[in-house]
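Note to self: user wants both folds in one dump. Writing first protein now.
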Amino acid sequence: MMFLKLISSLLLAYIPTAASSAFKDCIPNDTELGPFNPPAFASTVVNTTTFYSLLPPSPTPLPLLVFMHGSTGEWDFYNDSLSFVSTHGFAVVFPFVKSPEKDKSPFTTNTDGTYLLKAIQFAKDQNADPTSPMYQKIDVSSVIIAGHSMGATCSINAALAYPDALAVIAMHPGICGPFGPPPCPSCWKSEDLAKVGRAMPVVFTTATNDGAFWPAPLTAKHEHGCYLNSFGEDQGDWDGEKSLFAQFNADVCGEDGERSPVKDGGHNCPMKRVSGGKPEMAVLLKAAKLYGQMGGDEETDCHGMLYGGEDVEGSLRQLNQTDVMELRG
């Protein structure tokens, strides 16, 4: 009997689980919908907070991606790309501060991460509720925190308060404090991002033609300085988790007219809808897959495409889309 148990244990050790086998590695031309399609959309209000969610069909629980919009940001600015990401195996929760309509106002703001934390709790509650369509559909131990602009500042502050997240993806966050714009407490601090970076991997993106706070390229230059203040001037200065700073060039983050009259270049580069939201939402997908699905495995193509050199097909360096790239860890 003991011999049979031993054989059974050994066999099980070599059989991949349904969850791990369901997720595919990254590919260079990631413009096609993933195998988890189509995601079901839902709008749910809990204690006056509205959450939009995407839940694709899956035989096993899926990792969670919580994403916060920027100031005046609308679901329509991100839904194409987030739906695309969802088809690659993610439950997505997108919170609002006041409501989908009121969040379009520049006077509706939040930067402390409260609503991303609410989104995580919402997913956990729905996952535990037998009456919810999300019941036991989400792997609530696998959380990726992300956001754009104001939402990116939120993502840093939420990750500071939720160190169990697997990674944070901050796309064009507001200027780091204590001075502005925006001044603290409506900001993030380099020392706080460093704390986050010791708990989880960090992916930080901006663009050379981002003119949100100062005329380009000064905004990106300042963001780069904030990153260096967090993770050190040189690779050897950092002893925490892996981090990436990617400053995309003006060619890939230029206006393409796809959202006219709304701009989708420069600071709004993550709002691009073409080709799965390239270039920045493509980075979000690779980072989310690497840490949410691949356990950060450095042998995966996802890892190579984020951190690899010019000899790696589909890597940021090989695609030559960035003016500045920094790697730590």
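First done. Writing the second protein, which came from a different request thread.
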Amino acid sequence: ECYVQNTAREYAKIYAAEAEPLEGFGEVPEIIPIFLVHRPANNIPYATVEEELIGEFVKYSVRDGKEVNFLRRDSEAGQKCCTFQHWVYEKTNGSLLVTDLQGVGMKLTDVGIATLAKGYKGFKGNCSISFIEQFRALHQCNKYCEMLGLKSLRSTHQKQRKPTSTKSKTLPNSPTIKKTVPKKAREPRDFISSEH
């Protein structure tokens, strides 16, 4: 728990260093540190300690990305959390995602990290790889993504379609015109007519 949150905290510091100088960006989310305490005389010898957050506790993103959260979408803190996720995703070439962002205002705690199956630079997260796939499919860029110059995930996550095998058919009364029809067309736009 400490390792995951403090790793995410380091990414948040780098994100802040890039975002804060941008005109109009403003305050950035901060992941608070968490510490492991050894208490040998106690029945539970280990505990974690972190700053107490006072105020309304909000989940800006959930681990599996399925929950629609209006505070995430509409609030400044929520949008900046989504941008932070996008930034980390892009910086790690889609290999790591900080998720389960929650807290009070811009102070976040109890975050999760998803990595590809093999991990990222020796680090394995505590969330399923499916969270990365869901984020890639569901993330909607906002003005903060644009301010940081992040690439839209809509164009980068769409799978490259494999060329389908085609059959050439000669149309009646026209030996020079052929119509190319994909073997299996999924949408009307997949039909392509060409002159040869």
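Dump finished. Worth passing along: Residues 161 and 190 are 11 Å apart (CA to CA).
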